[in-house]
Amino acid sequence: MSVNESGDFKLTRRAVLAAGGASAAVTVMPAEAEPVPAPKPATLPLSVTVNGKRRDLTLDTRTTLLDTLREHLGLTGTKKGCDHGQCGACTVIVNGTRINSCLSLAAQHHGDEVTTIEGLGTPDNLHPMQAAFIKHDGYQCGYCTPGQICSAVSVLREIKAGVPSHVQADITAAPTATNIEMRERMSGNICRCGAYSNIAEAMAEVAEARA
Amino acid sequence: MKFDTPAGQNPIDQLKVVGRPTSRVDGPRKTTGTAPYAYERHNVAPNQAYGYILGAGVAKGRIVRMDISEAKAAPGVVAVVTTLDFPAPLPLGLANIAHLFGGAEVAHYHQAIAVVVAETFEQARAASTLIHTEYARAPGKFDLAKEAPDAPLAGGSRGGGSGTPPIDRIGDFAGAFAVAPVKIDRTYTTPGESHAMMEPFATIAAWEGDKLTLWTSNQMIAWSKSSLAKILSVRPENIRLDSPFIGGGFGGKLFVRADAVCAALAAKTARRPVKIAMQRPLMINNATHRPATIQRVQLGANQDGRLTAIAHASTSGNLPDGEPETAVSQTKLFYAAPNRETYMKLARMDLPEGNAMRAPGEAPGLMALEMAMDELAEALNMDPVELRVVNDTQFDPEKPNRPFSERHFVECLRTGAEKFGWSRRNPKPGLVRDGKWLVGMGMAGGFRNNILTKSAARIRLEKGGRLTVETDMTDIGTGTYTILAQTAAEMMGVGLDAVTVVLGDSDFPASAGSGGQWGANNSTAGLYAACLKLREAIAQRLGFNPTDTIFSDGKVTAGGHSVPLADAARGGALVGEDGFDPTDMSKRWQQSTFAAHFVEVAVDSYTGETRIRRMLAVCDAGRILNPKAARSQVIGAMTMGAGAALMEELAVDTRFGLFINHDLAGYEVPVHADIPHQDVIFLDHPDDKSSPMKAKGVGELGLCGVGAAIANAIYNATGVRVRDYPITLDKHLDKLPAIA
Amino acid sequence: MKSFTYERAKTPRDAAAAVARTPGAKFLAGGTNLLDLMKLEIETPTHLVDVQDLKLDRIEPTRDGGLRIGAFVTNTHLAADERVRRDYGVLTRAIVAGASGQLRNKATTAGNLLQRTRCPYFYDPNMPCNKRKPGSGCGAFGGFNRNHSVIGGSSLCICAFPSDMAVAMRVLDATVETVRADGSARSIPIADFHRLPGSQLPVGEFALEPGELIVAVTLPKPIGGRHFYQKVRDRSSYAFALVSVAAVIQRDGTGRVAFGGVAPKPWRVEAAEAALPQGAAAVTAAAFAGAAPRPDNAFKLPLATRALASVIAQAKAEAA
């Protein structure tokens, strides 16, 4: 059985695919198969302040904040784990709030202030959270680590600011930095090496020092 | 250095640096984002272009035609390389089952069929969707349950340590099982699992004439160098791999994958360096996975709990030329019993490549065996800890004249039971309540072999006194940088800060690499050998007698004479290079690691959701070189085991022949909220048969048995036995207490 | 991702007009779902109109004692609002049960309502999906459908609507306020905002006209009662619901209930709520009459009952 390529093959070939089993010639086309003339990529000038330094860029409109940092500004501390908001490795702090930089266009951040892992501390001048991660071995392969640390710093701020969470018994009460609160709030940062238990302890130490 | 007799007293036994909880030496770089991973190395080669891989849209068949004209004309596109540019598949690398590129045949879904190279990532990605591919789809086999009944017997070896012949028989299993007073005969299933490491497969490839350099993310540098030479038909000496930081592997980066091959091919065509990171939605079907299993365990015991008969059979599927998941291998060694039978069957299937994932064999095998042991304990009305104690063996049960080098499994069990408060467990399931929660405790034994393999290293005493260690060994999060630095510091009598460790470069001496939990012991033993060479060279240069020269506190001392270590390098750097050769030590002694896992869970009596409350692992794994990082390895493995027990499953669409949940939203792995505080206890039993380090592997042990411990705890909580992993709520919901 | 042009509109009306006059244009708010889908070319806008400067980021009281939530208010901001926590607790609870902290910081109120399904067949362009490619079939219907609808779907599409927030809004009888390209305003009851797939192609999804922009969601005045959002999922956090229950239960045992994860829209059957005092089974028997589960997701029906029973038990315990 075969299906010709012209005309109304699409419905038919899907039916063939769904039937499975029998050998069939099929064409899998890109999602939006209608051929469109390729326009020149649109570009956009923008300026972002990253780790206190103003950066002026002209970028393809499609460029995410994540790829802006990694590919255009050489700030590769922010990681690309999934590029789809499913892992948290790309977490950065924008105007004081943590976000997934993979699901944000650079264009959305014209005029914004971005803090990345490189802006929190350096090997010779560690942020207390970075030092606590080292002390408690809150990482293994290190790939999710910058995102974990940016999130951890933000989570303590969010708790202090009273942002509610799923695990609060009383949603109107002020949250506190308990183990389960931190774990729930950190759940958008996946660590496949499984350093969670140690990360919670690193955060607890920083939270206590600040309290 | 030939290691052919048990290690005697040696400088490592001082334990001034080795054996102490040590923060990772690479920590400041990893926590500040300054450790460079493969895709991030902007500075290693100028003018890098971006590659983007297109995966096959069907699971099996042949590509009839590809139209790349639109893609080639797209803005910024530098080159398009398609699989049809090659008349036949490129040769397979080590342990590759399906070809990584080349030819018209499609062996599995999302197999790489084209690479688009462009000036920017955005341009390459957009152009990849402009390639129009026509397939002749062929029928395939995608349903393990359907294929299993006709699957033939098959032996196999997975990850080196879990090799198993197709069938093994000791004594008369059938006869003994038939007359056993108490018996269990159950079937368990485990699903396919994905490594889901956080760093995608990534490579930058650059050619200079005939010479190819790949900055990549790979666990096994020497294997992969020779594999790439074969795949690309390039002389091995013309290939260099560099992989200093690896964002997780878990077995998924043991072998060469499509990113490296596609980057190399694309760089050749584009005549400039090309970088590729495989997009996450492609990874699960493009690469390898842990195959699903159907396992049958039969246990026959006397009333006192002593096993008289053990049988374990496992069926898994794989592509032609693939191997079975060696899920029965631990059953050959774990418990005593005079009558034994283990066998594996392998169904030929067309799903993506099944291959090693952390603790291959043992991880799914123990999920079955240790649940069966729990069922047997209940049938015997015996404590599950005691059942395992009475069936301990100090010898290979298949070869009674072959002892274990060290085996302290009973101590793991006893220590764990005491520390966990096991005596508080109610052996009758389904009776402990905490509000709406049903609470239960479970335990399981853990077992994983200790694999000995060759490993080489080089150490140089630089002018000024610094020590530099060079080996192609990798650190995949295992803490290898740190234990190598500790080893060098201990051997040369200096502090950790006097040592620099450089890893992952194929120009360095070939090491054991990272896999099969063999990395730590073998790579440090290789460095130990190199350090002995350097000590000799230093003594010689200083005119000391090598045999009574002491290296301590930054000084070299002999015959009452003492000089700073740095003095030895005044006349130029000194180098020691050697390797560890374990000869037949692991044949003469069975070398394994042991654990006891204890878990407490709570199951929501309304919704059936399981939440883990406590976890403890007690590990017997020789000398622990760095208790801090080793503990992390174990808790990480326990976390992966929690995923396997509760949520991880590659969902097969048997019509289209793919894992349909092929991203990190669909394939759920544990998150912070799933994992409570975890406890790990290491027993202190150095193993002098394993190496001069007296260490053993520990990175996979933590995963071995933990899934069953969770499952057994769920049963203890609910009274509902689910034998089909993962134990999601839908599998016991209808048997939970009726609601008001 | 297809190439596109980008602009920031200054007023809602300008934004709506810009999208209406540009073929292939879309609004961009947080972008957490749109960019995800654009990377896979499931969404292929030619022009994006960013709405971040429209000043739609406020929560204000309404004259009749309710709240008007700007379309661009982030999920975090909405969940953390003192008034919402106090008077519309089900909404705060639903929002913080969804996604992750990072995503909630970026995702907006309007964007959350406009989330597209997380069905894996929708997400894989090689697979059939009537929502992505009308006429190609429903991959999930005969395939992997554990996470899919048990009611409200059809053989054309059995996707489940993924939002938690919208389930709470459904229980609160929220109203979606929009501006059309011609500048006219419109109010759409949340019950009518999400459309069922139906029996004809293309499958239904949202009750919006081309270029129509959500500017706010209005909550009527508080209804009191105890507020619950129980979300059941395989992992403890950062996962879509298998089943969720949004409920507001009064001291006398009466109340309102809506379910998430079970249908292509937030699932509420007002007539079924009368049975609340009789218990969960009576409610779900009525709410899920005519359910058509697939073999892999039939468990969602007893699960919905049990999750609701859990909520009712909690309400009783708190009231006692």
From TrEMBL, chain A:
Transmembrane segments: none annotated. It comes from the Bacteria. Residues 44-120 form the 2Fe-2S ferredoxin-type domain. Gene3D superfamilies: 3.10.20.30, [2Fe-2S]-binding domain. SUPFAM superfamilies: 2Fe-2S ferredoxin-like, CO dehydrogenase ISP C-domain like. InterPro entries: 2Fe-2S-bd, 2Fe-2S-bd_dom_sf, 2Fe-2S_ferredoxin-like_sf, 2Fe-2S_ferredoxin-type, 2Fe2S_fd_BS, Aldehyde_Oxdr_Iron-Sulfur, Beta-grasp_dom_sf, TAT_signal. Keywords: Iron, Metal-binding, Oxidoreductase. The keyword Iron-sulfur does not apply. It holds the Pfam family Fer2_2. This is Xanthine dehydrogenase YagT iron-sulfur-binding subunit.
TrEMBL record, chain B:
InterPro entries: Ald_Oxase/Xan_DH_a/b (IPR000674), Ald_Oxase/Xan_DH_a/b_sf (IPR036856), Ald_Oxase/xanthine_DH-like (IPR016208), AldOxase/xan_DH_MoCoBD1 (IPR008274), AldOxase/xan_DH_MoCoBD2 (IPR046867), AldOxase/xan_DH_Mopterin-bd_sf (IPR037165), PaoC-like (IPR049648). One of its GO terms (molecular function) is xanthine dehydrogenase activity. Residues 1-35 are annotated as: Disordered. Its EC number is 1.17.1.4. It holds the Pfam family MoCoBD_2. Residues 32-139 form the Aldehyde oxidase/xanthine dehydrogenase a/b hammerhead domain. Keywords: Oxidoreductase. The keyword Metal-binding does not apply. It comes from the Bacteria. Transmembrane segments: none annotated. This is Xanthine dehydrogenase YagR molybdenum-binding subunit. It comes from Sphingomonas vulcanisoli.
Automatic annotation (TrEMBL), chain C:
The keyword Flavoprotein applies. It comes from the Bacteria. Its EC number is 1.17.1.4. SUPFAM superfamilies: CO dehydrogenase flavoprotein C-terminal domain-like (SSF55447), FAD-binding/transporter-associated domain-like (SSF56176). Signal peptide: none annotated. It holds the Pfam family CO_deh_flav_C. GO terms for molecular function: xanthine dehydrogenase activity. Coiled coil: none annotated. SMART domains: CO_deh_flav_C. Residues 1-224 form the FAD-binding PCMH-type domain. Keywords: FAD, Flavoprotein, Oxidoreductase. InterPro entries: CO_DH_flav_C, CO_DH_flav_C_dom_sf, Diverse_Substr_Oxidored, FAD-bd_PCMH, FAD-bd_PCMH-like_sf, FAD-bd_PCMH_sub1, FAD-bd_PCMH_sub2, Mopterin_DH_FAD-bd. This is Xanthine dehydrogenase YagS FAD-binding subunit. It comes from Sphingomonas vulcanisoli.
